[in-house]
Design brief:
The complex is a heterodimer. Chain A is globular and about 50 Å long. In chain A, strands 1, 2, 3, 4, 5 and 6 form a 6-stranded mixed sheet that branches. In chain A, about 30% of the residues lie in helices and about 30% in strands. Chain A has 2 helices and 7 strands. Chain B is about 45% helix and about 15% strand. Chain B contains 8 helices and 7 strands. Chain B has a 5-stranded antiparallel sheet with strand order 3-4-5-6-7. In chain B, a hairpin with a 7-residue loop joins strand 4 and strand 5. Chain B is globular, with a radius of gyration of 17 Å. Classes of the chains: A alpha+beta, B alpha+beta. At the A-B interface, helix 1, strand 2, strand 4 and strand 7 of A face helix 2, strand 6, helix 4, helix 5 and helix 7 of B.
Chain lengths: ~120, ~180
């Protein structure tokens, strides 16, 4: 039996999984984080050298500190020139730029400030 | 021997990547150093960024990425732009061929850069075009034309590197990290 190179094997495996999930009508884009109580956590993804840094929080008292920390980080990033976008909003809503922390939805991506290269 | 062409291709791409790394001579010594802090290629970060990018692409963009290795975005009032997996001048206007370069001052994986450019072009194009350097295809192909004049002006003429055209600006070879 001919052995596939590892990279090629992984690509084939991913394609099979993607095909299967599309066929079963799984939503490949909308991935949500659930809290212990079953609520949906809001997450902020900050693009950086590690790929992306994830900050998760929700409206409960348990994560009040995380929420305050996330808000401080959000404000600091936007004041530094980064831009935030609400993505994967569900119900076919298009992505949208966001500047207010209270308006964040399930998933937000913060892109770094770009400069002319 | 099915692995041989891929291995040769990877070696060729690595050689091209080494060859096209921007270098200049410092004023204090005659030693060649990298123009910017060298970006350590982190495969884990790259995989993570790539997964996020693929999740954010629309169905059409995903199909195009799988088939051709790049994707296109529609910008209202400006037409269609193609985002290529390269570090510089990777946003190309499909009709006019004008290339735009907008990069992050902090090193981020190329898929993250592509995602940032996609989101900006689709949702805040004025922010992208306000900062991106523009070059026409002819300028990129003509040696001696300084496509980084805008950045040089912004630096107050302090940047005295000689102008040059990098192969990564004109080559369609993918970045070394994208070769399986």
């Amino acid at each position: 039996m001919k052995r596939l190179p590892e990279a090629q094997f992984l690509t084939s495996k991913r394609k099979c999984l993607t095909w299967f999930m599309r066929r079963k009508n799984y939503n490949l884009k909308r991935i949500v984080w659930l809290t212990a109580q079953g609520g949906v956590m809001k997450i902020i993804r900050v693009l950086d050298s590690s790929g992306d840094r994830v900050i998760a929080f929700d409206g409960t008292q348990d994560t009040a500190a995380a929420r305050a920390e996330a808000e401080a980080l959000f404000v600091r990033l936007l004041s530094g020139g980064s831009i935030a976008f609400k993505v994967n909003r569900g119900d076919g809503k298009p992505d949208e730029r966001v500047t207010d922390f209270s308006a964040l939805e399930d998933e937000t991506i913060v892109v770094p400030r770009l400069v002319g290269g | 021997m099915g692995w041989l062409p891929g291995r040769l291709y990877r070696r060729l791409a690595e050689a091209v990547a080494r060859w096209t790394t921007p270098r200049h001579r410092t004023a204090s010594c005659d030693r060649e150093v990298s123009a910017s802090p060298p970006l350590q290629h982190d495969p884990a970060a790259d995989r993570r960024a790539r997964a996020l990018l693929l999740r954010m692409l629309s169905r059409d963009q995903y199909a195009q990425w799988e088939a051709q290795g790049f994707f296109q975005v529609e910008v209202a009032g400006r037409g269609t732009f193609r985002i290529l997996p390269r570090a510089t001048f990777n946003v190309v206007q499909v009709v006019t061929g004008e290339c735009y370069c907008g990069v992050s001052p902090t090193p981020i994986p190329i898929p993250d850069l592509m995602l940032a450019q996609k989101l900006l072009l689709e949702l805040a194009p004025e922010r992208f075009f306000a900062v991106a350097n523009r070059a026409t295809t002819c300028e990129l192909l003509t040696p001696g034309v300084d496509v980084s004049a805008q950045a040089r002006d912004a630096a107050g003429r302090a940047d005295r590197r000689e102008s040059r055209v990098r192969c990564s600006m004109v080559s369609m070879l993918p970045h070394a990290s994208y070769i399986p």
